[in-house]
Design a protein that fits this description.
With 241 residues, the chain is of the alpha/beta class. The protein is 38% helix and 16% strand. α1 packs across α10 and α5 crosses α7. The structure holds 2-phosphoglycolic acid (PGA).
């Protein structure tokens, strides 16, 4: 399976950040290696510009969220069709920051994933337990429920990102055994050809060992995706298809 290394820029990046992507591409000698997929999800304001600028460089551009409806009276929201129109190829849905900051429930996440598919794009559906849930040894149960309730009914292609909430932006990561256990579990709940990403404090230091775990088919990278050097190291740490 071709690994997917996805950068989630969150609410970071002005127009000048284009130079960071240009540096990344320069490190790839002009085009990202074709035995892995490289995706950058910048803020929505940059999607059109990045998609136009980097169309030929084997880097794909994605959105970080979308509305479940195609159009309508939803001030400030963006539909999956609009992201497709701007040049996005993927859309992250159900990130834990969306679930927490905007009270998104599994049913909302599923509706968004289905909207992404209807727009012809690939959803990256995020799941993950909180610190409390892990301490209570409920991680598998919580993620199992999220999967059951957030995944689309039928789809040719989607991606699942396992991101333990307590590992996001904290520098903490689960043990390699815990990641392996969760990814084995998620695989048992979905198809063999669905890519499963790990996310949460992935860095140039830990990327190779995490990406070598069975059923880890890539990474969703936050903080370290903002710097060309770090993101390049993480992309190169993946074993190509
Ligand atoms: P992080 O974020 O790599 O900064 O921990 C990951 C994410 O939220 O997708």
């Amino acid at each position: 399976m071709k690994p997917l290394i996805a950068g989630n820029w969150k609410m970071n990046g002005l127009g000048e950040a284009i130079s960071e992507v240009q540096s990344l591409i320069a490190k790839f000698d002009g085009s990202a290696p074709d035995d892995r997929d490289v995706l950058i999800c910048p803020p929505a304001t940059l999607i059109g510009r990045f998609a136009a600028e980097f169309a030929d460089e084997a880097i794909q551009i994605g959105g970080q969220d979308c509305h479940a409806k195609e159009s309508g009276a939803h001030t400030g929201d963006i539909s999956a069709a609009m992201l497709a129109d701007a040049g996005a190829a993927y859309v992250i849905v159900g990130h834990s920051e969306r679930r927490a900051d905007h009270d998104e429930l599994n049913a909302d996440v599923k509706a968004k994933a289905e909207a992404v598919l209807s727009a012809g794009l690939i959803p990256i559906i995020c799941v993950g337990e909180t610190e409390k849930e892990r301490k209570e040894e409920r991680a598998l149960e919580v993620v199992g429920t999220q999967l059951k309730e957030s995944l689309p009914e039928t789809a040719d292609e989607f991606v699942i990102a396992y991101e333990p909430v307590w590992a996001i932006g904290t520098g903490l990561t689960p043990t390699l055994n815990d990641i392996a256990e969760m990814h084995r579990f998620i695989r048992s709940q979905t198809r063999e050809d669905i890519r499963l990403l790990y996310g949460g404090s992935v860095s140039p230091t830990n990327a190779a060992e995490i990406l070598a775990i069975d059923h880890v088919n890539g990474a969703l990278v936050g903080g370290a995706s903002l710097k060309a050097d770090d993101f390049h190291s993480i992309v190169m740490a993946a074993k190509g298809a």
